[in-house]
Amino acid sequence: MIRALYIGRFQPYHNGHHYVINQIAQEADELIIGIGSAQMSHETGDPFTAGERVLMITGALQDLHKPLYVIPLEDINRNALWVSHVRAMTPPFHRIYSGNPLVIRLFHEAGIEVLSPAMYERATLSGTKIRDLIACDKPWEDFVPPAVVRVIQEIDGISRIRALNQDDGDCPGR
Ligand code: ATP
Ligand code: MG
């Protein structure tokens, strides 16, 4: 029995995360998704609350047909203790999947098996790029699962992101 952990900030959950998680689901029996920087919201780089991100992830993965645990993880700002913090908050897991060099390093040093999935269409599938598209009133809906579009609409996320980015002059052609 393999229970696998995948960690991201998911601001928002997008098709790159979705692709990787569906790959992981073929190799693991149960999945844990850790939502990093869970305490953050209403900032340009972190617009959505942990609870909103839980809705996005559970909505997008409702057809997974495997046990799924979505766990918010607050920052503790102390890297040497972070793996213990994650283990205290999550169901026991056997391996972790991450592309983040610091995450990889910290779990490797703790003796936990770490696998690094390849990036999938990273030119378009990045949280930063998708937030920029929303802020600049450009089409973004094709880059996230349909359930995520519905959640962002339900919580009025588009106007939140635009308000957080107001007047920063970063939209090309404006
Ligand atoms: P941001 O631009 O806000 O940092 P992000 O797209 O990098 O967003 P994160 O939540 O920071 O998303 O990333 C969580 C995990 O998802 C990381 O391990 C990262 O490597 C992975 N990831 C992000 N984008 C992709 C992608 N397009 N394909 C595969 N993995 C991805
Ligand atoms: Mg990132």
Protein described:
The chain is globular. The chain has 174 residues and is an alpha/beta fold. β4, α4 and β5 form a beta-alpha-beta unit. It has a single domain, classed as 3-Layer(aba) Sandwich (Rossmann fold), CATH 3.40.50.620. The protein is 40% helix and 13% strand. A five-stranded parallel β-sheet has the order 3-2-1-4-5, with helices on both faces. The protein has seven helices and five strands; from the N terminus they run βαβαβαβαβααα. The model has no long low-confidence stretch (mean pLDDT 96). α2 packs antiparallel against α6. The site of adenosine-5'-triphosphate has 19 residues, from α1 and α5.
What kind of sheet is the major sheet?
Answer: 5 strands, parallel
> Percent range for helical residues?
40-55%
The percentage of residues in β strands lies in 5-15%
In CATH, the topology is named: Rossmann fold
The beta-strand count equals 5
Overall mean pLDDT: 96
Small molecules bound in the structure, each named once: adenosine-5'-triphosphate, magnesium ion
C-alpha end-to-end distance = 53 Å
Shape descriptor: globular
CATH class: Alpha Beta
Strand order of the largest sheet: 3-2-1-4-5
| Count of separate DSSP helical elements | 7
Output the structural class.
alpha/beta
Short account of what is shown:
The chain has about 170 residues and is an alpha/beta fold. The chain has 7 helices and 5 strands. The protein has one domain: Rossmann fold.
